Amino acid sequence: LQLPKLSAGSHYLRAVFNGTSTFAESSSAVVHYTVAATTSTTLQATAAAFGQTTELKATVTTLSPGLGKASGSVIFKNGATVLGSATLVNGVASFAVKLPTGAHNLTATYVGTSAYAASTSVPVAYVVTKATPVLALKVTPANPQAPATLTITATAWPSTAGAATPTGTILFTSGSAIMGVGTITNGVVTVQTTKL
To answer: Alpha-carbon distance 190 to 180, whole Å?
Structure first.
């Protein structure tokens, strides 16, 4: 026997035998049967430069009316790599992650429950931009007399709050002349030179 299509939600099924001239009426025990509601998942991601945290927000919508908001968890991925998971609260799951510079392909998958069917968001093409450093220069002594040794200090920090502290090297120049090169340590480079 094939039953008609059931709507999403809970159903209580029972088989009833009406009896015949030789068999008495009978019925089965009641079976609780749940048809999972269809869901839709969408994903949003905040913009980030290198070193900043990307905030991922997945919203799971129940497409069957009157069945409330989905519960359970959402898995966040970057391509095939699982970034982590979060529990739905009022239909929304949030997750924070730091991603490397470059292009990413982000998705959110609602894993579903017995009452709510699983669904996956449309992939979000996402780019983490390079962080832009700000440089400040200090030269001592302030009024040197030749011949003099100068101490040149450069301080580098990110132009965007939360971005990574700059790393790498800084080149010091005077016109076309190279005064020195130094490696950034904790945002600071100091060199000494007599090339004036």
So the answer is: 9
19: helix, strand or coil: coil
pLDDT of 85: 97
Q: What's at 183, amino acid-wise?
A: T
Question: Quick one: which H or E segment has residue 72?
Answer: none
CA distances, 3 to each of 13, 14, 17, 33, 77 (Å): 11, 12, 16, 13, 39
pLDDT band at 4 (very low <50, low <70, confident <90, very high): low
Q: What is the pLDDT of residue 196?
A: 63
CA end-to-end distance (rounded Å), the chain: 97
Name the percent of the chain lying above pLDDT 70. 90
Instruction: Provide the 10 A C-beta neighbour count for residue 174.
Output: 12
Distance in angstroms (rounded) separating the CA atoms of residues 73 and 112 = 8
How big is the chain by its Cα radius of gyration, in Å?
Answer: 32
Smallest CA-to-CA distance from 119 within 130, 128, 108, 129 is with 108
